[in-house]
Structures are given as structure tokens and as C-alpha cells.
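User: I've been going back and forth on whether these two constructs are worth ordering. Before I decide, could you fold them both?

Assistant: Sure. I'll take them in the order you sent them. The first construct and its C-alpha cells:
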Amino acid sequence: MADEHSVERFEVVIVGCGISGIDAAYQLQKRCPGTSFCILERRSSLGGTWDLFQFPGIRSDSDMYTLAFPWKPWQHDDEIADGYLIKQYLQDAVTEHGIDKKIRYNQDVSRVSYDSEKSTWTLTVNGKKSICCQFLLLCCGYYDYQEGYTPSFPGIDQFQGRVVHPQAWTPQDTNACNGSRVVVIGSGATAVTLVPHVAKEASSLIMLQRTPTFVVNLPKSGHWFYGSFKWTYKIPILGLLVYTLVRWWKIILSAVQIAFCRQCPKLAKKSM
């Protein structure tokens, strides 16, 4: 057990510095000023998903007016944004609001225990260091960052080609696609962004899918209303108001589209 005097103590500890972890930190600073807290991030950089995945074409699979924070307007022209733009947006957000001073990188939380008598969480970090807190917020997402899920394919050990999981994609994998025959298994959001880029370089590409994914073709550039009032950025309060209006319009529109697809699937399919 760690020496009680060597234990760091905070009121709140946030684990994970992706979108949810950053937003949690902002809300703490705004709603509970003076609260002591820190953010523990296992990786050497913030961003979560947008730092982990490096495959070509990675981008948001929903518009940035709803994916971005309500307290920091998305100001780029692209409504569907590339991964590096999203990561830069997150970096700007933590810097502007002083959240970057609360982040601790390369902090691997290996064990967590709770003391009911003291109402205290104790975290073991990097196998030895202990941190205690009253409230623990786990904002580390649902990915296994060490190894992405890979189905068991009989005979895969006999395949003499290159097998790549998008989560472990490297620039060498991008180069290996040049002039090669490529098969992509799956047709979800990752495939939607990956396939068009790989298809440009591969000699042939086949995508295998079990369940069809229906995709609506929409412009990548920003909302016309928001774009027309981009000058409001220079007036923070007015700019935030315009951004909020567009954000809620997008949220309501998405809710209506989802309800339509669920209630009238055949009609929705024809319209796509």
C-alpha cells in the first residue's frame, strides 16, 4: 500500500483526454470553479480517437456543428472535417481555456479501488504512483487502445499478404497499398472514409459487406447560413449565438431524419 503522505489528492480525476474528457474539464471549471482536478491521459497526446487512428481519409462521420463543443464554435469551412482538423480544434480548445495545464500525459491507470468508509477513489498510475479523489470520471471511450477487435478467420495464418487493422494503420501500410490488390472487410464509417482513398492507389479494391450501409451524399463545406454570418466570429457573443442556432438546427434535423428512417424504412431507402 502506498505511503499516505506520497499520495496526490484531487477532488476530481478525469481519465482520458478526448472530446468527452475535455468537455468534462471545461464544465468543471465553469460550473464548479475552484475544484481541484487533473486529466490523466495514457497516450503522449490529446485527442483520443483523433490521435489514435492514422488511416488515410479519417474524418468525422457526422457534421462538426453537432460533434464540436457548444462552448467553442467550429470555424472551419468543412462541415465534415478531416481528422487532423478535429485534433487541432481540440488542442485550441484546451489552450484557450487553460485546460492544457491540467493534463498529464503518459499516465496509465492500471488499477482503481474505492473506499466506502472514506468515500474515496484510489488510482494506481504507471504501476506505482497513487492518486486519490472523491469523484472519478472515466472518459476513455470504448476502444481497446492496445489492440483493436479482430474476428477469427480460419486460415488467416496461411495468407501470405499483408493484414492490417485500421486502428494500427501506419504510413508504411499506405505505401503498401500502392499498386496492390486490396480487400476491405466491412462497410461501416471506417470503410466509408478509407475505401475512396485506398482505391486511388490500389490496382484493384473489393469491399466485402454483410449488411449494406446507406449513405447520403451531402456537401462537405459548411452550412450556408453559418457561412453567410462568418463575420460574427469577430464579436464573440454574437458569433456564439449564430453557431448555437445552426447547431440546434442540425440536431433537430438529424433527429427528424432518424425518426423518418425508423418509421418509414422502405420510403427512406428509396429516397437514398
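The second construct, handled the same way:
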Amino acid sequence: MIKVLIVGGGDGGVLREVLKHDEVETVTQVEIDEKVVEVCKKYFPTMACQYNHPKLRLHFQDGIEFVKNSKNMFDIIINDCTDRDLQDESSGSNPLFQLPYWKNLKQALRPGGIIIQQEESVFFHLDLIKKGFEMCRSLFPVVNYASAYIPSFCGGQGFRLCSSNPDVDFKEPIHKWSFEERKKRSLRYYNQNVHKAAFVLPEFADQALYPDDDFNKQ
């Protein structure tokens, strides 16, 4: 069974989607601002709809400190934080994108675990994405980039995926759910073809992020 940690994510969207997977045993969520959860439960009830789920362990505290004190505890860690401040590296959620925090993330993983964090768009901040890749490649044997269509994010929303298991293939979906199974889980965006397409990059981005390997080769 799988133990998941969500850092941030007070709107409840990631929690809702994680709990659609039967293999998940527990979800620990660490949100720094209790008010975010309260407001989202009131105004976004279809998103913040799983805060009473028995698998949830909810903590209102600093995620950086929580991760620092977690050792070998989680199979999947999802960072769902606010975007970094491009003008001041010390402010806001910027420490969640920096090496000390990622070293602590690595030690919080169980063997073979994975980490997912939102990332910038390749169309606007490719240099930032490359820096993040270089940092994570110093820690993990597998580092990939995926993207998704999200209307409120001009240029699309990116994701950085890392694994301590060198044999992980993020491009290949583990589940190939049928149409009926997708309906049962109320999936409105995800399917196995969208999963595969998320890792297909424009050529300029492919060459920048995978200079030594044609990641998009067939």
C-alpha cells in the first residue's frame, strides 16, 4: 500500500485526485495556512470535498519543517505550493524549490519513491526549469518534465517528476483504465493518452532538458 505526502494543496484538489487511487493507504497533508482550507471548503466544495476522508492525516504547520523531520516515510511526495518569487529567492515558497529542501525530500522517501512538484512553462522560464533539473539530477537517477493544459496558466503548467528508482518510466502509465473505470472515478481530464502526451515536448525544450538523450524518441 502507498503512503502519500502532500505539501500545501489547501484547495483540496490534489487530495481529491490522490484518493481516487485504491492503492493509497494514507494521505498526509501539510498546509501552512488553516484559513485556506476553511475558505476552499466553503467556496470550492467540489474541489475541497475530501477533508473528512478517513485516510487523511491533516497537519497545519510549515511543510519545510515537517519534511525535515520525516525519514523514510512516504512513497509519493507531491509539492503543491505557490509559485516562486522570481525577484527575491528568499521569499514566499522559494525555499521549496531549493537544494536543502530537496535533500530533505529525498530522505523522507521510502526506497523507490517519487516526488512531483509544479514547474514553470518551457515557453517562458526554460532556464529556471534547467536549473531545477540540474539540481535534482544531483539527487535522483530519474528526472522528467511533464505539462498539462490549465486555462489559468498562460503557456501551460509544468511538473517536475523525480524518482530514486532508476528503472522508473514516468512516460508509461501504470493504469490503463477503461472508459467505465474512468467514469467511475469521475475523471474529467486524465486518461492514458493524456498521460503519455504530457511528456512530449517541443524540440527546443527536449534538447534543452535532455541534451544527452532523445527523451521523446519512439
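Notes on the second construct follow. The mean pLDDT is 90. The chain is about 30% helix and 25% strand.
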